[in-house]
Specification:
There is one protein chain. By secondary structure, the protein is mainly α. Helix content is 63%, strand content 4%. Helix 2 (30-48) runs parallel beside helix 6 (124-135) and helix 8 crosses helix 16 (339-358). The longest helix is centred in the last third of the chain and has 48 residues, at 363-410. The radius of gyration is 25 Å and the shape is globular.
């Protein structure tokens, strides 16, 4: 208990906020965090929109527990967390709009809870600014209502790291102990390997601390979240080592690969940059990415002067290890990979910006506030433009999948049915068909298996316009569709639909 009292006194001396029992909701700043979370939810529904169709990866996750289509092939790197997260909706409804609203509301609530964890270390205005900075990134807004894991890894990281620091400051904080377990479990539930990278600094800090309860909470959370993934590795992939090796192969082979330039190219709104050979975006689009680490270091300097270095240094360390696999070990990029990094860096960045506009006196304060306001206005404008273009482009792709599914139904390819070839997984989901491929990262059938299946249920192979059909589909009738050629197998015996 002495440790807890000392931690409270140190926090008071250094300017960190303390939560007084019985203090009003308005007094300790929760309304600021709630306002940011509510604005984030509304922004997702307005700027992204609940009508945006499901993307390629989303159809894989959603189809695992779905009334829309049979489960798509689930490759080695994927974890089941997203499928379980969306199951309360997808298990009984095929409405994409309902799913988007559900995820938008849930992501806003999650952001609020994750920010509240840090009230012991940062004032409400800093936490609100951190939440606003993270929530206003185009990649956060785009993936908040998406059935994808990276945003939830980011929230899990905020909860886990914040609660870890609270337990270190006060061993009697039992709620924070449960928060460590919950945050680490959420990360591992969504992406087990990301959870390990993010918690590496925490595991190192546990060695000298000798806090058995904290160590057990962290390890139990990781084991609980990643347990299913490990069990599935032995049941379906030949063991944990084999699954990790297979995941590495699918990702192009993990090794020394500098992906900084790939990440920069993806900032223009490329949701997957593979291969990443496009020209570099305009510096206006990438400026925030270079400013982020500089402002984070400035936030560390502010924290050091205020004698509260640890609550800033630890999330910085976790952000650094979280970035390692995506900046140094893979040969392609997707902006969503770095969402946990952006969430953790938002805290020291917000601290630095708040210090810039409050520390100076007189005219200097007004000048600093004007510079920060101008910079943030330009940043928000860039984020909006990129988000708008990204939504328009992805919506067009997904409308093509919808039209292709309608063409397949018109041609007699209706459930139960099988699709193979180009984009078979997302189009199969939209059409309510199973999907399979004899080669590539999602290989789960042989050519002979496709022919046998075609003798039982309606089957079609998809290819790009003008491209030859796959070898097993030669001789099948070809019909043009939206962005595809549809090669239809002869109708199964007794099926008079074609």
């Amino acid at each position: 208990m002495a440790d807890g009292m000392n931690a409270t006194l140190v926090g008071a001396r250094s300017g960190a906020p303390t939560t007084v029992p019985g203090a009003s909701w308005r007094a300790h700043g929760s309304w600021l965090l709630a306002a940011v979370a509510a604005a984030f939810t509304v922004a997702q529904l307005v700027l992204v929109g609940p009508g945006l169709g499901l993307g390629w990866d989303e159809t894989v996750y959603v189809s695992q527990i779905s009334a829309q289509a049979p489960p798509a092939f689930f490759s080695a790197p994927r974890a089941r967390g997203v499928s379980l997260l969306v199951a309360p909706v997808t298990s009984w409804s095929t409405s994409t709009e309902l799913l988007r609203v559900y995820l938008a509301v849930l992501s806003g609530l999650g952001l609020y809870l994750a920010l509240r964890v840090w009230r012991t270390f940062f004032p409400p205005r800093v936490l609100a600014a951190a939440g606003a900075l993270f929530a206003s990134l185009w990649v956060t807004l785009f993936y908040g209502p998406a059935a994808m894991p990276n945003y939830w890894v980011a929230l899990g990281a905020l909860v886990c790291v914040g609660c870890f620091l609270r337990v270190r400051a006060d061993r009697a904080d039992r709620a924070a102990l449960w928060g460590v377990a919950a945050g680490s479990a959420l990360m591992a539930w969504m992406r087990p390997t990301d959870a390990v990278w993010i918690t590496l600094p925490l595991l190192v800090l546990l060695v000298p601390a000798r806090n058995v309860r904290l160590a057990l909470a962290l390890l139990a959370g990781l084991a609980t979240g990643g347990g299913q993934w490990i069990i599935e590795a032995y049941l379906s992939h030949g063991g944990l080592g084999e699954r990790l090796s297979e995941a590495s192969r699918i990702q192009g082979g993990l090794g020394w690969n500098l992906a900084f330039d790939d990440q920069l190219r993806s900032l223009v709104g490329r949701t997957l940059c593979r291969p990443c050979t496009a020209e570099m975006p305009h510096p206006v689009i990438t400026a925030w990415w270079f400013a982020l680490p500089l402002l984070a270091v400035a936030g560390l300097a502010v924290a050091a002067r205020a004698r509260r270095t640890t609550p800033t240094l630890v999330p910085l360390a976790c952000a650094a290890t979280a970035a390692v696999p995506y900046l140094l070990l893979i040969g392609y990029a997707a902006p969503r990979f770095l969402l946990p990094v952006y969430a953790l860096l938002a805290l020291p960045v917000a601290d630095a910006l708040c210090h810039l506009v409050t520390a100076p006196r007189g005219r200097l304060r007004a000048a600093a506030a004007a510079v920060v306001a101008l910079g943030l206005a330009g940043h928000l404008a860039v984020q909006y433009v990129v988000l708008d273009r990204t939504v328009d482009r992805t919506a067009a792709d997904r409308r093509d999948w919808t039209r292709t599914a309608a063409d397949l139904h018109r041609l007699g390819v209706r459930p139960p049915c099988l699709l193979t070839g180009t984009e078979a997984i997302p189009v199969g989901y939209y059409a309510g068909c199973s999907s399979a491929n004899p080669r590539g990262h999602n290989a789960n059938i042989t050519e002979a298996g496709i022919r046998r299946t075609a003798g039982r249920v309606p089957t079609a192979a998809l290819s790009l316009p003008g491209a030859p059909p796959p070898p097993y589909a030669r001789g099948w009738r070809t019909h043009p569709s939206a962005g595809f050629d549809l090669h239809l197998a002869p109708s199964p015996p007794g099926d008079g639909t074609r």
